[in-house]
């Protein structure tokens, strides 16, 4: 067992995964120090802007308010990172090419031990390539190798099935623990997927997770207004306009998405 001091930052939005990681670290590295546990892109950006560079970061790819790569576009990150993900479509080759390790959730103790050993071998040696450059290369590979975005849904209809084209959907919303698609024609159709699942499947250039209840299509936006405390009020929809609120923390990401 390696008894050297390990200081790390955890960026993860699911408490069960945080607890498991901390428990495994306690077993493998009793002298570990958790600098902070952050669950969102906005929290992570704020912390990294004001705190010293962490020796190691454990970073989930999907966070409560977006994808972790949004962090890199807002603040320089030069710390070694061990990515964690529940989805093996984030291909292994991307991690290997950039010399960044990764762990599939639920995290396995042996795999975590191997990742920490790799970190020990690299630390404190400076990499020959700037880590920020490596992460940019990883992001490019990730975007290139991602599975194609969903184009349609096969849905039960009477005694058979029907298809709903994604291009006909203005926004998705959750209601009473169910998910619905609101179409350009004003219809409402139940979708057998959570918003979290849809966020992964949909084209991020066209759809944005506005808040916990809505994923909106860029073409459904009618107007955007400043709201109090740095929030934004967005009017969406064709037939029955609906107003939704973008939080202060998410407003910069939303405006960046619209400006691409």
What's the gist of this structure?
This protein has 260 residues and is of the alpha/beta class. The chain is built from eight helices and 17 strands.
Tell me about this structure:
- The chain is α/β, with parallel strands linked by helices.
- The chain is built from eight helices and 17 strands.
- It has helices at residues 15-28, 41-50, 69-72, 92-97, 109-122, 131-145, 195-201, 251-258, and strands spanning 6-11, 32-38, 57-60, 62-63, 66-67, 81-85, 101-104, 152-157, 160-165, 169-175, 178-183, 188-191, 207-209, 214-217, 221-226, 232-236, 242-246.
- A five-stranded parallel beta sheet has the order 2-1-3-6-7. Strands 12-11-10-14-13 form a five-stranded antiparallel beta sheet, covered by helices on one side. Strands 15-16-17 form a three-stranded antiparallel beta sheet, with no helix packed on it.
- Strand 6, helix 4 (92-97) and strand 7 (101-104) form a beta-alpha-beta unit.
- The longest helix has 15 residues, at 131-145.
- The radius of gyration is 20 Å and the shape is globular.
- Residues 89-94 have low confidence and may be disordered.
Topology:
Blueprint: E1 6-11, H1 15-28, E2 32-38, H2 41-50, E3 57-60, E4 62-63, E5 66-67, H3 69-72, E6 81-85, H4 92-97, E7 101-104, H5 109-122, H6 131-145, E8 152-157, E9 160-165, E10 169-175, E11 178-183, E12 188-191, H7 195-201, E13 207-209, E14 214-217, E15 221-226, E16 232-236, E17 242-246, H8 251-258
Parallel strand pairs: 1-2, 1-3, 3-6, 6-7
Antiparallel strand pairs: 4-5, 8-9, 10-11, 10-14, 11-12, 13-14, 15-16, 16-17
